[in-house]
Amino acid sequence: MASTADSGSFPAAKIRNLRWWIGGLLFASTVINYIDRQTLSLLAPYLKQDFHWTNSDYANLLIAFRLAYSFGQSICGRFIDRIGTRRGLTLSVIWYSIASICTSFARGFLGFAVVRFLLGAGESANWPGATKAVSEWFPKRDRALAAALFDSGSSIGGAVATFLIPAIYFRWGWRPAFIIPGLLGFIWLFVWRRFYFLPQDHPRITPAEREMILSENVSSGEAQGTPRARWKDLLKLPQTWGTIIAKALTDPVWFFVTDWFPIYLVAKGISLKSGLLAIWVPFIAADLGNFFGGAASGFLIRRGWPLGAARKAVVVFGGFGVMLLIPTIFTVNLALIALLFSLATFCYAAFSTIANVLPSDLYTSDAVASVSGLSGTGAGIGTIVAFKLIGYFSDAMQSRATHSFDAVVVTAGVVPFVGMILVLLLVRNTRATTRGLVRPL
């Protein structure tokens, strides 16, 4: 249960459209989250030389993060459903900010593996918590755009990190490059603790906005005192598996871009310094894709499309568009690679926006973070498997020089298309809908 606001903490003035200020806070949390996690990826080409890591060693460091991040999402999602969004995200940001700072004390592979595991555990609460906040604060017509807003923090955070982390590294070395991003979380916490409360408790929400939010929750079946759905009950529903697959078969592609793209460019024979802009551009394209997916779905709803059809139209767009990764195997031209990766990540991000909003579309507030966490765990398991295979095949195929990542890239283009088909089949109105176990689409 979220804390009730202290009426003396705020002046009496009301804020119009307060929900979008809440969305801005969720966006800022995600930006900081991604700056912290991207630090290792951006420094990997240098740390690999300093510590004599192979691609498989680097993959294992990424897997250490993913293990904690994957299973942490289910655990943290359930935990946040119990203690509330405000307290849940507070504990998350404290945890991962400290973990980021502690990375500067690592002295070798084992030290990096331990702190990356701890970082993953702390960061795993961000998406379930943000998804729950969206379900608490936004009506269905705004949820996709709100999800796009906080999810876009991943691409913005990645883009900011591309400039911030190398600048810190070249000036002060790799240890401060982990410390400085870790300090940002404590600044965010000060604002979060003073500003986030449930709509019914918030002292600065206008009466009209409060009524709009709470009335839709009532009409959508938000009942007080109903038993909280158990994991085993949720996993019996095809809609839950569709939500899990929407993340499990798309997120590994995004994490391939965020964690392997610098190494991929080097394998293509492209200097990292000359490829700096190319690393940055796909993040911006993904940011635009987030907003496109949210805005397009909202537009279709306003034009009278059913909620499910509006969401699935964007899923189809994304599933086809990610296949634009595949032609990059035929070129070593930096501009063309950057263009194709950018178009593919734009389409991925549109798909991802819908994947993020599905839990709040389909489930009531007391199950949203739990289902979001389950989908995050599915995504994490998929990413762990993908990273292990990427490390193995890229090392094994090094003799093929600029083509050492070809099999990886082709797979990355095809798997989201398979995910698209499964989402279309599983996310639909069923008997569970008529029984009130999930919301109708």
What does this structure look like?
The structure is a single chain. With 441 residues, the chain is mainly α. The chain contains 17 helices and no strands. The model is unreliable at 6-10 (pLDDT under 50).
Q: Briefly, what is this?
A:
This protein has 441 residues and is mainly α.
Main attributes?
about 450 residues; mainly alpha; about 75% helix; globular
Lay out the secondary structure.
Elements: H1 18-51, H2 55-83, H3 85-102, H4 109-123, H5 126-137, H6 140-172, H7 174-195, H8 207-219, H9 231-234, H10 238-248, H11 251-267, H12 276-302, H13 307-321, H14 334-362, H15 365-396, H16 406-426, H17 431-434
Helix pairs in contact: 1-3, 1-5, 1-6, 1-7, 1-11, 2-3, 2-4, 2-5, 2-15, 3-4, 3-5, 3-7, 5-6, 5-14, 5-15, 6-7, 6-12, 6-14, 10-14, 10-15, 10-16, 11-12, 11-14, 11-15, 12-13, 12-14, 13-14, 13-16, 14-15
> Based on the structure given, which CATH architecture is correct?
Up-down Bundle
Helix content: over 70%
The percentage of residues in β strands lies in under 5%
Radius of gyration: 21 Å
Number of domains: 1
Structural class: mainly alpha
The fourth-level CATH homologous superfamily is: MFS general substrate transporter like domains
DSSP, total strands: 0
Uncertain residue segments: 6-10
